[in-house]
Structures are given as C-alpha cells and as structure tokens.
Amino acid sequence: MPRPRRRRLRSPGLIGESAAFSSIVPLLALLFGVLLCGFQAIELYQSRHDEVSRAEASAGNLRRLLESRLVGMFREVELVLIAVEGGVNTRWVEHLSARDPADRARLEQVLRYYSGRLPQAGQVGVVSPDGRLLALDHYGKAWTADVSDRDYLRIMRDDPSIKVYYSRPMYSRIDKRHIVTIVRRIHTADGHFAGLLLSDVGISYIEDMLSGTDYGPHGVVALRDTALDVVARYPAARVPGTPGNHPMAEQMATGQPGGVVRFRSINDGEMRLYSWGWLPGMPYVLAVGLSERDYLTDWHGRILVAGAAGAILAVLGSGIFLLYRRDRRRHAALLEHQKRLRASEARFRRLVNAMPTPVIVTRPDARRVLFANPPSAELLAPGDDDPDQRQLRLDEVERVWLVEKVDEAGDVSGREMPLVRPDGEAMWVLVSASAILFDDGPALLIGINDITARRALEERLQVLATTDTLTGIANRGSLLERGEGLLQLAMRHQRPLSVLMLDIDHFKRINDSHGHHIGDEAIRATVRCCIDTLRASDVPGRLGGEEFAIVMPETGLTDAVLVAERLRVAIGKQAILLDGIAPLHLTVSIGVASHDPARPETFAAMLIRADLALYAAKNNGRDRVEVAD
C-alpha cells in the first residue's frame, strides 16, 4: 500500500494539481485581503460621512440657538425705539437744531426714561432732519454731535420705505467704541421726514454673547455684514476685508437663506465646516464653524486601527503566500492553510471586539440580538422568557419606524433615539442601521453612539437662552415671545388677557445702602412672593434690573387689579433680615393693562401701556397700583 501511494504522489497529474492548488490559494488569499481592505475603506468612508453629517447638524443647531439670541437682542432694541417714538413729539426733534431749551428738556426726559432699559445699548438718541444728534447713555449723561455725514441719515431721509435700518460696523465718535447702529425713521402726521431715533449695540457686547457657547477647541463663530466683512467674531480676530471668491459669497449669490460650506480659514489656516444663515429681516449673516480637527478626532483614531488591521492582514497574506510557495505537498499545505485561517479568524475577532463603539446584529424586528461586540454589553437586557436571548430596548415607536425605514430604503443613518439600559436608566443614542444577511437569514446591522451628554448640553443651552439666571423665571426675550403667543391666542378666541408691570420702589437706594447682594435678595424675594401668589397659568418674567412683568391669561381688568393689589400687599409683608439693623421691607409700584378683545394690538403695545401705568404709579407716590388707559 505505501508504494502505490508514493507513486500516485509522484505522478505528473497529481504534481500538477498540487502545483496549481498551491498557486491558486495565495491568489485567493490576496483577493480576500483586497476585498476586506475595500470593505474597511468603504466603512471608513461611511463613518467619515456620518461624522461630517453630525458636525453639520451640530453646527446648524448652535447657529440657530445663537440666531435666536441675536435676533431677540436686536428686537429688544427695536421695541424700545418704538416705545420712544410713542413719547416723542416731532416738533421737539425739528427744533433740536434751533437748540430750543424747552424742547430739548422734553426730549431728554423721554430719552432718560428709556436710556437705561437696554443693557446691550450704549446710548439712545434722536437725530434732527439736518443731522443734529441728542443722545443719553445708561448713566443719563447727554451727548450732542453732528451726524449729518453718516450714511444712515441720507438713506433714511431719501427712502421713506425704509422704516428700520441696521448699519455696518462703525466707530462711535461719542464714546469711542466699535458699534452697529439701529435707526428708526420718524415722520410728521402728513408723512414728511421728521428725523431719526437710534440706538447702538457695542461690538464687544455681541462678542461676549457669542463667547457663551462651546464650539470645540478650534471652532469659531462670526457675525458678518452684507459684504461679508466681520462684525463680531469669537475667538476675536479681524482681517481687512473678505476675498471676493469666499465660498459663502458664492452660495449667497444664488439667493440661498443659509447653507453649509467647508473651507480653510484665512485667519489661522484651520479647515472648518461652517453652517451659515441670514438673521431674519437684518443685513447680517451668522456663521458657526467647527474645526475638522475636532469633529474628526474619533475618525482619525479609527484610521489608525484600520491601518494596524491592514498591516496585520498584509503580513498574514505575505506569510501564506510564501508558505504555499515553499511547501508543495497538498496535505501539509492544507494543514498550514487551516492553521493560518484559524489564526486569521482569531485576530479578526480580536480586532472587531477591540472597536470602541457598540456594533449589534439583531433579527429583522430589531428586538432579539444575534451578535454584539463587548462595548454593546451595557446596552443589552436579557429576554423576558430566556435570559440568554438578549434584547435591545429601543423606544417602541422609534423601533417600528426603524424597521419600516430599513425595509423601505435599505438603511438608516444618524437617527437620534431614546434607549433604556438594563438597569432602567434612559439614554439617547445615535443609531445607524442596514439590512444584511446573517447566518443565512435576514438581519439588521446596528451601530450605536451614546449622545446623552450632547443632548443634555443642548437642553441646558435652551434653558439658559430662555431663563433669567438670578430668579429662575423667564428672561426678557422668552417673556416677549410667550406673551405674544398668549395674546394671539386670546385674540383668536376672543378671551381676556392682562399684563402687570412691577418695579421695586427705591431699588437703587437698597443697592447703595446695603450692597448688591441685598439687592439680589430683594429681587429673589419679590419673585418668590409672585410665584406663591399667582396661578400656575400666569407667566412671570424679568424684563431687567428690578422690573418685572406678569402675563395673566383668562383675566380681565377687574380681576387683574385685584391680583395686583393682593400681590402689592403680599410683597409689602416681605422682610429681608439685615445684620445689626431693622429688617428691610419692600414695596412695589404696579401698572395694569388689559387687552380689549374688540381692539387688536401687539404684546409690545400692551407692555408699553402697562409701563406707562407703572410710571404713573411711581409719580403718584409709589407703593400703589395704577391702571392703563
């Protein structure tokens, strides 16, 4: 028996088959390596695309958040200018150039009332038709200047259709600051140009507002004008002019209201992804740029892992090729081949299990788990009937949507979903899924990224954008928005609505006598008393300083006055304990305005009426309630 066998091995046919086999196997291994590298390259390309998509979404969310803050800040300035317009006689403005003492005194009285109500504004002023400026700053100091050479005077005088004008960045000759100016046209009863109302916003104030958000270690945000010159930027960096071939300029030329561009900054050479958009109704464009170095950090790590895997596969393939070329005997070659395959499989499993993100294969219903790498263990719960049958506990509505979407389109990329851990803790994840075959059956390949921290940050940013940090109630911008919504609802259903304006009496004396910490405690005590006295449906908000407003739905004038009196009495009973001296008792003056369902008006107009009633309460002795006309 041994002799025939040896002869068979030496026969030309068997030797040729062995040689052919030993040549084919290395070619197959090489093809396998190429396909595996190709799959890895596709996965890396897709993961990079996913990272870029997430960066685009994050930049867009940050831009929209900042846009709401900036628009709210500029709209506040417009509302104050509207309020000033209601208290200014055009004759006073026309006589400003003649330096009429009486008219100037009246103008100063109106401006002094409004000059301290805008923390973002350096001054509030009026301009006569021939360019004579009278302005008051926050401290009540009056300034006069000749602004007849300013572009806004010529533009607003020559074009009656322009009601509000936002300037490009300029240098204030009055208080030596870089500013943008908001200008409103005023006219006589017959429509003739009667002068301007203006207020400015310091560039430094805008930059401080932009600096309050995290854009990553190398991210930037910039507010630009129509020529794409920088108005404000964080981190601060100014360059002379903007290149004409700026990518945003190319998109703006097509009439787009916003978009996403990617280019290298001329300031620091950093490659960034920018989400940009026009501020509604304003000649400014806001751009948030996230650095490629920041949002591709994880992807670069995966590149290193893939490179190491490719190097291992290359070494493995070269070893198999040399081994089969060196040893022609079929049995030895097959045994060596099996040994190498087992080693390759072990290495491959170690590489997959070393990946930092959860990868899961489930049945087509996205319930039962068929395969999961180690990072997925903390996300999987045991089955209800069999502990060995692990489950992925997605929100039921989202799970049904995911299954239907994959069945329809074949895959889903970057879907944010709620998920419940085995310990019952809720979290948010970013899910990508594709339909695959697994163990000769249909399945879902699901990649998961934990975005719970990012969602919590976004929710915190939303709270910070709408809440007064000292008192916890609505800030000015949030109150104006909610008040306008409640007023529109009341007008639509012909229901009553009232507004209270509160101001702590002699608040400056409290700050000066006892310190700002006691002033802050007085503000908090007033808010606590309001919350304890008001209904859950009432909306209190802080307009600024010691001034508050309360929106009261389903409340007519009579009930609103009763609530105001009850609130005034309750606040008067508050006592703030002081070291070594008698407790401090607070009083407030309150103005009441009620919406007439038969007379449409804006919420800003209601606030102005309530503010005038508050002003009357101050003039009539304080610690009282006055009703608006």
UniProtKB/TrEMBL annotation:
Classification via PROSITE patterns: GGDEF, PAC
Protein name: diguanylate cyclase
UniProt keywords, alphabetically: Membrane, Transmembrane, Transmembrane helix
Ranges where the PAC domain occurs: 413-463
Organism of derivation: Microvirgula aerodenitrificans
Statement: the UniProt record of this protein carries the keyword Metal-binding: no
InterPro entries: Diguanylate_Cyclase, GGDEF_dom, Nucleotide_cyclase, PAS, PAS-assoc_C, PAS-like_dom_sf, Rev_trsase/Diguanyl_cyclase
GO biological process: cell adhesion involved in single-species biofilm formation; negative regulation of bacterial-type flagellum-dependent cell motility
Pfam family, one: GGDEF
